[in-house]
Design goal:
34% of the residues lie in helices and 20% in strands. It is α+β, with helices and mostly antiparallel strands and 277 residues long. The strands form three sheets. A five-stranded antiparallel β-sheet has the order 1-2-3-6-5, with helices on one face. α6 crosses α8. It is globular, with a radius of gyration of 19 Å.
């Protein structure tokens, strides 16, 4: 293959991503495109020290390990980009294009994958990302003009985390938002597996919901083997704490909060259902 273009890409850069480049060339006269993704350790910020632990969500070698592991979904319905090779701290991946996927379709396909995938024991899988993030997060709500109901949710974080810890664990993408989803034919291709780990069922749906401001749980339940109350609990508790902390960050950084965002976060917590004892 003769490479004739290297195009740096700005999107899809996680905490441990060094660079993402689209390579285009020709093989036997046919145009070919692939993505080169490079990784490097996290050396700055509040997660730098902990990210050396393979169980930490920001562990820098995880995505390369994931592509070599056989754990990533391979279809039908939902899959990771095809991997053409892993060379040290670099992976070469299929270019999945830019066609967006429907959130409803992605939620149903995520349910089928998580319902069928075993919960593996690999030393490099991320632990509970939300718990790890909250362990180094202390928010002063007096410094921002947020909806006071978000501060009230944050004050309940011990209760919410306890409820969340009681639901089944699944193999979790960890950053399952609309920007990561591509429609390729009749398949949903999910990008960026750097935070692959174990998390409560429903947690991935919270990331999806915060990128759409729509409830994906009914679509997920259409393909899920998990109890609806468990899915709803994992979803609502993750969404409450993730959404509240993001609002605090946006207001602190002077970033406009999307219209309806705060109201959506508060409303989704009210959808939690008691789980059977």
């Amino acid at each position: 293959m003769e490479i004739w273009t290297e195009e740096p890409l700005a999107g899809g850069a996680g905490a441990a991503t060094g660079a993402v480049t689209r390579l285009t060339g020709r093989v036997r006269g046919h145009p070919v495109a692939l993505i080169r993704k490079e990784f490097r350790p996290v050396t700055t910020g509040r997660h730098a020290a902990a990210a050396q632990d393979p169980r930490h969500w920001a562990y820098w070698r995880r995505e390369a390990l994931a592509y070599a592991s056989g754990l990533l979904p391979a279809g039908p319905g939902l899959r990771a980009p095809r991997c053409y090779g892993v060379a040290g701290d670099v992976v070469y991946l299929e270019d999945a294009g830019t066609a967006p996927e429907s959130a409803a379709v992605a939620a149903r396909r995520l349910a089928r994958w998580q319902s069928a995938a075993p919960v593996p024991d690999r030393p490099w899988l991320a632990g509970d990302q939300l718990v790890q993030r909250l362990a180094v997060t202390d928010l002063d709500w007096r410094a921002v003009g947020a909806d006071p109901r978000l501060a009230a949710l944050w004050a309940r974080r011990g209760e919410l985390l306890a409820a969340r810890a009681a639901v089944p664990r699944v193999l979790s993408h960890g950053d399952f938002h609309l920007g990561q989803l591509r429609a390729v034919g009749d398949t949903t291709v999910v990008l960026d597996w750097a935070t692959l780990g174990l998390g409560p069922v429903g947690a991935d749906l919270a990331q999806l919901a915060l990128s759409t401001l729509r409830d994906p749980v009914p679509d997920y339940l259409a393909g899920s083997r998990f109890a609806p109350a468990a899915v709803r609990t994992g979803y609502a508790t993750t969404l409450a704490l993730t959404g509240a902390s993001r609002v605090h960050w946006m207001l602190s950084a002077g970033v406009p909060v999307p219209a309806g965002y705060q109201e959506f976060v508060v409303a989704q917590v009210c959808t939690m259902q008691p789980q059977p004892s």
